[in-house]
Design a protein that fits this description.
Layout (H helix, E strand, L loop, with lengths): L6 H16 L11 H24 L4 H19 L7 H6 L13 H6 L12 H11 L3 E4 L4 E4 L7
Helix pairs in contact: 1-3, 2-3
């Protein structure tokens, strides 16, 4: 009996598909393995974050900043599937407006975190941000299930 792919793995496949469109200059086989994908995401995330900071300082046109934020959003969603809880803020503050297809990636928050069922990262990102502030230190990444779980060794406040 084979194990079903995790939700994190399913989201990684979505990220790979989006990267094929966004990064045409990088061959898809350069990020075929999870290790290669994570390395690429880490590098691009750091570059993108620095570029966004610079663009904001320079008061770049809003269209340029929006494009940069969309890139950071996709990269953050990908890193979130590898246990980088710290990028949740970038996901929640960077959800693109409108009805674009990359917005669906924000559901990675709902799928991988043990948040209450009535929380919706797309509809109410502020509520999810508040929930994360309260529960951040109580969460940890489980490598086997590839999702965030409650860290039972941390006491409730």
């Amino acid at each position: 009996m084979t194990k079903e792919p995790s939700q994190a793995r399913r989201y990684r496949e979505m990220i790979r598909a989006d990267l094929k469109l966004l990064l045409r200059q990088i061959p898809a086989d350069a990020y075929g393995s999870d290790a290669d994908l994570r390395s690429l995401l880490e590098n691009l995330y750091n570059e993108n974050k620095n570029q966004l900071t610079q663009l904001l300082k320079e008061k770049a046109p809003e269209s340029v900043i929006t494009t940069q934020k969309a890139g950071l959003f996709v990269l953050s969603c990908g890193l979130f599937t590898f246990g980088r809880l710290d990028v949740a803020e970038d996901i929640l503050t960077g959800i693109p407006g409108g009805k674009g297809s990359i917005r669906r990636l924000a559901w990675v928050i709902n799928v991988l975190l043990p948040i209450p069922k009535h929380f919706d990262a797309l509809a109410h990102p502020e509520a999810v941000r508040e929930w994360l502030k309260v529960n951040y230190s109580r969460l940890k990444w489980d490598d086997y299930s590839e999702q965030y779980i409650w860290n039972t060794s941390v006491e409730c406040q």
